[in-house]
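The data layer described in this paper is built around a simple, fixed record for each protein. Because each token names a local backbone shape, the row as a whole describes the fold. We quote a single record here, exactly as it is kept in our systems:

***
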Amino acid sequence: MARTIPMIITNKNILIKSKDSDEFIPFDMPGIERVMNIPFYHQFAERLAESQVAFKNFVREVYGKKLTKNIFAIIIPDDTSALESIFINEFFVNSGACKAVAQMTMGQALSKNDQKYISISKSSRNIALQYINNNEVRARMFYDLNDYSTDTILRDAKRLHIDVEYEEEIPVFINNFNMDMDDFLEFGTVITPKMFMEKIAVIDVEKL
């Protein structure tokens, strides 16, 4: 039987859920240095075979040898582009560490109880504002991490989508996974790293 393994692509590494607990174990590719405004995994492309072998060995250590039973449920940064998403899928499938992958943004994982909500988060390069409806991203806006106005983002959050403009109460969730959302903490429900990992420890792949 296939097993679903939750995984988070953070701003600096990959976290994979432990086999025996709800803890997450980091995978750091040796020799990868952080470059401003560029996701770390871009450097995997320069050392593709080496990176895939290292990751496959890492998964084998955590989950054992039966890698073809794995389905990775990958939580990606909210500003991941379509091309980056394709690369992420190809990287993991072609690494031999799994038989299939599914993706969702971090914003989509912030609430399991609300059908509609706004998410605000930071990646390694942007502030991401998203409107989530029935597990789908219906609207999004990005703001340069080094040049943004909190007031502008909060104003845009109120008119991000026609649903938001005409409905009285749509909750706002602040993704504080990276502990870097001090400017926004008072404007919504704050999701801490512990809360986030608890939410994705069990993921329904059909919703991805």
Summary: The two ends are 19 Å apart (CA to CA). The chain is about 25% helix and 30% strand.
